[in-house]
Amino acid sequence: MRIDAVLFDFGGVFMDSPFEAVRNFGERCGVGADRILELVFGRYDDDTDHPWHRLERGEITLEAARQAILELAAPHRVDLFEALGSMARAAVRDEMVEIARFARASGRRTAVVTNNVREFGHAWRAMLPVDELFDAVVDSHEIGMRKPNPRVFAYALERLGNVPCANAVFLDDFEGNVEAARRAGLHGIVVGPDWRRAVSELRALLEAESRR
Q1: Which H or E run contains 211?
Q2: Close Cβ partners of 91 (under 8 Å, ≥ 6 residues apart)
Q3: Three-state DSSP state, 137
Q4: Which site in 5, 119, 205, 209 is 20 to 30 Å from 28, CA atoms measured?
Q5: Quick check: 9 and 146 in contact, CB under 8 A?
Q6: Does residue 177 contact residue 165 with C-beta atoms inside 8 Å?
Q7: Full DSSP string of 162-194
Q8: How do residues 12-35 score in pLDDT, each as one tens digit?
Q9: Largest CA distance in the chain
Q10: Tens digit of pLDDT for each residue in 48-92?
Q11: Considering the entire predicted model, what is its pTM?
Q12: Residue from 97, 98, 70, 89 nearest 14 by CA
């Protein structure tokens, strides 16, 4: 395959997964890992009117989402701020930064394609040399769309110069988002707990194409 563009998710790719942070919180507070994921994030491989989905599309504020999730979770006290608190201590994965740098230096177009929150924008951008690594930033709250909506991938590839889907690779820690990208025609790589495997897979793809 010819690779002209590489698209990266942010959370769970360049840092630890927010899903894992929330799962751990659910275990600690007695709600349970799977149940708390459903309460906080809704059905994440779908695009619904769950408060978190509306927050990621920029339709409501973080505080409004927090209050709505508290109501949904009653009688459990599931505070969004507490559930996401451990993310503030997450470290950036230097090897993932380096493969993004390598992808761009080798002539590919690069983008970060993230479901994110307006109130977190300054914090996550401060964790990465964004201008050095990426030709485009596609943030869900800015465009009013969120993964797994296939229009997100079309929008990102248009921003990168109308790169064909078949010539793009997408990395994400959530398998549902990767499956959505594959259905749209992109090559997908799931970034799992052994995230270095995804780095190796991407490097192998990029180097193999460069040798041809």
Answers
A1: helix 195-211
A2: 15, 16
A3: strand
A4: 119
A5: no
A6: no
A7: S--GGGEEEEESSHHHHHHHHHTT-EEEE--SS
A8: 999 988 888 888 888 888 889 899
A9: 60
A10: 999 999 999 999 999 999 999 989 888 888 888 888 876 666 789
A11: 0.93
A12: 97
Return the C-alpha torsion angle 52, 53, 54, 57, nearest 10: 120
Alpha carbon dihedral 199, 14, 186, 184, in 10-degree steps, equals 150
Residue of 69, 9, 13, 67 whose CA lies nearest to 37: 69
Q: Measuring CA to CA, which residue among 159, 206, 156, 207 is closest to residue 185? A: 156
What are the DSSP calls for 91-110, one per residue?
PP-HHHHHHHHHHHHTT-EE
Provide the residue type at 3 as one letter: I
**Residues in the chain, overall count:** 212
- C-alpha distances (whole Å) from 4 to each of 7, 184, 186 are 10, 16, 11
Average predicted confidence (pLDDT) for the chain: 93
Burial of 71 from C-beta contacts in 10 A (0-12 / 13-18 / 19+): exposed
**Tokens coding 20:** 């894992």
Q: Which residues contact 15 (CB under 8 A, 6 or more apart)?
A: 87, 90, 91, 92, 93, 127
